[in-house]
Each structure stands twice: as structure tokens, then as C-alpha cells.
Specification:
By secondary structure, the chain is of the alpha/beta class. It is about 45% helix and about 15% strand. Strands 2-1-3-4-5-11 form a 6-stranded parallel sheet, with helices on both faces. A 6-stranded mixed sheet has the order 7-6-8-9-10-12, sandwiched between helices. Helix 8 links the parallel strand 3 and strand 4. The chain starts with about 20 loop residues before the first helix and ends in a 5-residue tail after the last strand.
């Protein structure tokens, strides 16, 4: 028990002298214990533990056996001092919290990313941005040497984020085709082709006045889906109405879809089909159609995009939609970033500029 100068108890007990904790020193000493057990140098143990080259399989096996016998677990902080790797990846989503945590699209993409990072023993650092100030903050963090790379998605056309990421010099992979041609590599789905298949399907049902509710047109996915709608409705000889008043802007949300559907019905009460740029948008359009007393698909057929199962299978009626493999996109983003950092070139890895996954039409009751 400690006492003050007057002999009074201070209430503090000290069992050992306090000293600074040197993780790098402790790590070196533990490496030496493994080296002694394996009968090799500490440098050899370090190379084996950190995946370095220049060690024969026989020596590596001795080191691994010693590691198992001693129950050695590498210290991440100390290892980072030696390898300059942090085994951490920043996942940057250019959307506010209110969007990210309510849209199941982001949950699916994060699940795919998380699965791949976990399998490779890497940590996920989630960062969200709501404007230029947030982008600058993210840029400073990435430049600070806290992570080994960045996965960036939901980027808008005027967003400074791709340029900030590029200036850090960190490896990065983008989710979705970025508007900045220098922002590569990326992983995306065939948005334009998927939109074409949706509109072709509606036309095959005999629908001729096919409206489109777009996503936010400062994102390339929304622009590509709009272009796909135009490809089919504007094709010579298709016999489809392609008047400008059949297009309304949405924002990939149910509320935006409901508002856009109201606008379309005011302009074109004779429309007989709607291609919505996302499942959430389509769900809002269905609310408005039901409130207007219109039957789906008898009066108006509806097709969405994404195939978010928690949405598409539970609308009334269940939603015909274009499926993109959102989880696989996340896995590919993480895998390509980690492979690049390890110098791995796997068959089927994204090309230097990116990879585009196919889409498929999933038919349900709405069209």
C-alpha cells in the first residue's frame, strides 16, 4: 500500500514498477524463442511468419512446428513495423449513413467484401462520405498509412474522392464503373445490357408505352440503365413509344420511385409498363400504382433492377427484376485488391481496367 508524505494511505497498490510496453521488442523476443526451438535464425522465423521468400520447405516446416508448439500468435502492431503492412483495408462508400444503413444493396456488397477479407485475415475499416469535407477527411486518413488499400463505391460523377484516393498512392479498386477514366480497376455489372433485357421483356408482353424511372444521373449505373432503356424504346421498327414524357428521375429509393410514378401518371395516364432503375425504386412505384387503383401487371407491368431478395420477393405482387450478383461484386473487389498487394495474378482476376459481370432477368408476377 502506498502512503503520502504524512504517512497516510493513498489507496493505491503497486505490484510492479510501471514501464512503457514495447510491442516490437516483445515480438523480437518471441521470435527468438521460436527460432531457438526450431534451430534457425530469427530472420528465418520472420520470413516464414510474414510469408517471405528464400526459405526451404524443410526449414519452413520446422518453424511452423515450433510456432504450433509454443502457441505463438504474431503481433499485428509489431509485425506492421517490420513489414509495413497493416492487414487492413478501407471500404469507402460515397453515401451518408441514412442511405447506407437502410439500403440492402450496401449490406450485400459489404457482406461479399467482408467474407473475402476475413478469409485473408484482413480487417475492414468502413468510411462514409457526405460531401467534399468528408472526402477530404477520408483522403487524409488514407494518406496517413493506416491501411494497405481502399475499396471505393457509390461514387458520383462530380465526387473528388477518386482523385483524392489516386493522390495517396494506395492501391484501390472501385465498385461500379467510375466517371473518372483514371479510376481503375473497377468491378461492375452489365447495367446497360440488363436494362435492355428488362425492356425487351416488357415489349414481348405487348407493352408499347414503357416508362422509365431512372436512378440519380450523376452515377454511371443510372446513366447506363437509362441508355439501355433508350436503346430498345428508340430502336427503329420496334413500334415503341419513346416520347420524353415517359422518363422521370428517381434516386434509387422507394420514396423517389413513388414520386416519379406519380409524375408519370400525371403526364401519361395511358402508360402500360414501367422499367425502374432499382428494386427499391420499383417498390415505391408499386405503392403509387396501387393507390391510383391500377392493377399490376394487368394494367401496368413493372420490372426492377438488382434482385434484392428482401425487396423483390416481398412486394405485392412479387417483382420481376434484373439480377446482378452484388455479393460476388464485393468479393471480386476485395480479392483483386489483396491479390494485387501480394503480387498474385489468378485466372479470372479483373483486367487492369476492370471487370463487368453479366446480369439475368428473373421473372416473377409483376411482369
Amino acid at each position: 500500500m502506498q502512503r503520502d508524505g504524512a504517512g497516510r494511505s493513498t489507496g493505491l497498490t503497486t505490484a510492479w514498477p510501471l514501464r512503457a510496453f514495447d510491442t516490437s521488442r516483445q515480438w523480437r523476443e518471441t521470435l527468438e524463442a521460436v527460432a531457438a526451438r526450431a534451430g534457425v535464425s530469427r530472420a528465418t522465423v520472420s520470413r516464414v511468419v510474414n510469408g517471405g521468400a528464400g526459405v526451404t520447405e524443410q526449414l519452413a516446416a520446422r518453424v511452423r512446428r515450433a510456432v504450433d508448439e509454443l502457441g505463438y500468435v504474431p503481433n499485428r502492431a509489431a509485425r506492421a513495423l517490420v513489414t509495413r503492412r497493416h492487414d487492413a483495408v478501407a471500404v469507402v462508400i460515397a453515401e451518408p449513413e441514412t442511405r447506407v444503413f437502410t439500403d440492402p444493396f450496401f449490406a450485400l456488397q459489404l457482406r461479399g467484401i467482408s467474407e473475402e477479407l476475413t478469409a485473408r485475415d484482413a480487417q475492414l475499416v468502413l468510411m462514409l462520405t457526405r460531401g467534399d469535407e468528408d472526402s477530404e477527411r477520408v483522403g487524409r486518413y488514407l494518406a496517413g498509412g493506416h491501411v494497405d488499400g481502399a475499396l471505393v463505391f457509390s461514387v458520383h460523377l462530380d465526387d473528388p474522392l477518386p482523385g483524392l484516393v489516386r493522390r495517396t498512392g494506395l492501391p484501390a479498386v472501385f465498385g461500379g464503373r467510375p466517371g473518372d477514366p483514371a479510376a481503375t480497376p473497377y468491378v461492375d455489372c452489365d447495367n446497360r445490357g440488363g436494362a435492355r433485357s428488362a425492356v425487351r421483356h416488357l415489349a414481348s408482353l405487348g407493352r408499347r408505352r414503357i416508362a422509365h424511372i431512372s436512378g440519380p444521373l450523376d452515377q454511371t449505373s443510372a446513366v447506363d440503365r437509362l441508355d439501355g432503356w433508350r436503346d430498345i424504346t428508340g430502336a427503329a421498327g420496334a413500334g415503341l413509344d419513346n416520347a420524353p414524357d415517359l422518363l422521370a428521375s428517381g434516386d434509387f429509393t422507394p420514396e423517389g420511385g413513388a414520386r416519379a410514378m406519380s409524375t408519370l401518371l400525371e403526364r401519361r395516364p395511358d402508360l402500360d409498363a414501367v422499367f425502374a432503375a432499382s428494386d427499391l425504386t420499383a417498390s415505391g412505384a408499386l405503392w403509387t400504382l396501387r393507390d391510383a387503383g391500377l392493377r399490376v401487371p394487368e394494367d401496368v407491368a413493372v420490372v426492377g433492377f438488382d434482385d434484392l431478395r428482401t425487396v423483390a420477393q416481398h412486394t405485392d405482387p412479387p417483382l420481376t427484376t434484373v439480377r446482378q450478383d452484388i455479393e460476388e461484386m464485393g468479393r471480386l473487389m476485395a480479392r483483386s485488391l489483396l491479390d494485387a498487394g501480394e503480387g498474385v495474378d489468378r485466372p479470372g482476376s479483373p483486367a487492369p481496367d476492370g471487370i463487368v459481370l453479366p446480369t439475368t432477368l428473373v421473372r416473377r408476377a409483376s411482369a
